[in-house]
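Task 17 of the worksheet. Students: predict the tertiary structure of the chain below and write it out as structure tokens. Keep your answer in the requested format; marks are given for formatting as well as content.
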Amino acid sequence: MMGSMGRLLDGQAVAAAIRADVLPGVAEFTSGAGRPPGLGIVLVGDNPASEIYVRNKVRAGTESGVWVDLQRLPATASIDDLLAVVNRLNISERHDGILVQAPLPEAMGRHAAQRVFDTIDPDKDVDGFHPANVGRLVQGRAHLAPCTPSGVIELLDRSDIPIARRYAVIIGRSDIVGKPMAMLLLQRDATVTICHSRTADLPEVASRADILVAAIGRAGFVTRDFVKPGAAVIDVGINRVSDRATAMSLFGPSSPRLADFDRRGSVVAGDVHPEVAGIAGALTPVPGGVGPLTIAMLLKNTLAAASARREGR
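Model answer:
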């Protein structure tokens, strides 16, 4: 049905390598400080996807020797309730990193996430979203860079995919992935274009990329005509597909993923259509691609934040 398959980039294996690199640092910090690095995670409400992400973060942190403190707030909590928790974590000596799980309940208002980012102590901002950390990132001197984009850079490096002198296209302009991804690729001497839903001739622009990063949040949006043969395609999308016709069009009638769908009533799909595997030189799977890297970089950032606070930097 397809030509030769592109190389699958194993996010799980690279994430395991990053976590292994973090372990000695965590042990060293713990013996020197008399306590493990501390990560406070705040979860508001009961979004099922957020529950899974947070469970994975707690497990990965605990396995790496980090003290993970999960603080839950009900979906009915106000933005002021949330900011009070953040302020308590800001002044805590035991918490080196603070992460507030997105998305926040809509009732908190349109600018709730930004208010949270503005409130977190920049030295504890392991997500790298505080305006001070964003400014440092733009200037090429980030101490804490956003986890997903920095995880993508690690994946490219550790998979021996060159970045310098390559043309990179990012589909998606979010503050969380698209914009910081562009900055990190620029700092590695790639030439970068950011595209979005309103870009003219989007497939044509994307199809010139040596490195294509899809972070638009639409299942199977990136099809063969977006991809230059041999390109490295990084799929950041995690989309829950609960419509069988959509799942069928993505995976085909004989796919184990469709059987998965029939068993569970939904399936997770990336932003990149599976047909791209026949044309890409390298491709991240969903799940098992970028997701584990995000968590590994969160642990790396938590250790960096803990060490910097201990040294009084």
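Marker's comment: The longest strand covers residues 38-44. Residues 12-144+294-306 form a domain with the Rossmann fold fold (CATH 3.40.50.10860).
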